[in-house]
Structures are given as C-alpha cells and as structure tokens.
Amino acid sequence: MSPSRKFIAVAFLTFAWFSNGFAQTVSEDEPKSLTELFESHWHYKAFWAIPEINTINPRLALKTNSEGMIIGRSRCLEIDNLEQRRIYDPLAKMKNEQLHRVACKSMKLAIKNIDYLPIFEKLDPDEEILIKFNFSKGVVSSSKSMIEPAPVDPGKIENSG
C-alpha cells in the first residue's frame, strides 16, 4: 500500500471517528420522542393522586410548519368542543369537565415552553396536529387530524331559534 493511500485511509478513519462522535453528541441533546421532549415541562405525576385521571385522554390541537415550529395558538380539543356545543345548548355537559380543564392548563403550560415539535409534516389548511396526553402513564403521542366542528344535535338548533 502506497504512502498516499495509507494517508487517505487514516484521514478517512479519523474523519469517520470524529463525525460519529459529533453525531452522538448532537443526538444526545435532541429528544427521541414526544414523551422525552415534554418530560421536563409536563408535570403529569402531580395528577396521579386524582382517582379518575386514567379515564381521560385530553388532546391539544395545534398547527406546525414543515420544520416542526408551532404556528399560532394551541387549543384543548375536548374543552373547545364543549364550548362550541354550549353556544347552541347552554346546559351541555361533559363527564369530568373540571378535570379536563385542569389537564388542559397543564398541557398548555408544557407546550408554552417548547419551541418546536419533532413532527415534520406539511399540513393543509383544514388539518392540525393532535398531541395526546396520557396523564396516568406520562406518555405523549401525536396524530394528524382534520378540523371538524363540534357535534351539535340538529333538534336543539331548531328549537333554540
């Protein structure tokens, strides 16, 4: 093997070793999942004392750009749907409403401290990302959803006018 080939081989191996170390350092700083990203901002363990916390799975709806940056405000889907239903039926109810409201505040506080999400998807104008929070297990997941109006009983609309 000629000296120039040895030099190129040593240079390549050195470059590969340093680039691998750099990649590991960068990847250690970045969260690998939504749960890890929210871990330090979302205090779900404080909710474990609530007996029915495992019966709710609140969702936060928001928009992101293709780089994962959060665009605009987030909204708690279940609370938002309840408020829309109350426009037509002021007596509309939701099981565990107060628990949902407290969980919503917790989720909004957590998302307020996060600049971007590791979700790189281009959304249509009628689509949004749903961030699902499991308060009993501390798991955060996401899905893409179409924006749909809250279901309203047509009979209530006709009777209210």
Search tags:
161 residues; alpha+beta; 2 domains; 4-stranded antiparallel β-sheet; 5 helices; elongated
**Number of helical stretches of at least 4 residues:** 5
Low-confidence stretches: 20-28
Largest sheet: 4 strands, antiparallel
Helical content, roughly?
40-55%
Choose one word for the global shape.
elongated
Category by helix and strand content: alpha+beta
For the largest sheet, list the strands in their spatial order: 2-1-3-4
**What is the number of independent domains?**
2
- Which percent band covers the strand fraction? 15-25%
Overall mean pLDDT: 78
Order of helices and strands: HHEEHHEEH
Radius of gyration: 23 Å
End-to-end span in angstroms? 91 Å
Number of strands: 4
Describe the structure concisely for a colleague.
The chain is of the alpha+beta class and 161 residues long. The protein has 5 helices and 4 strands; from the N terminus they run ααββααββα. 14% of the residues are buried.
Mind explaining what this structure looks like?
By secondary structure, this protein is an alpha+beta fold. It folds into two domains: 30 residues; 119 residues, no CATH class. The chain has a four-stranded antiparallel sheet. The chain is elongated and about 85 Å long. The termini are far apart.
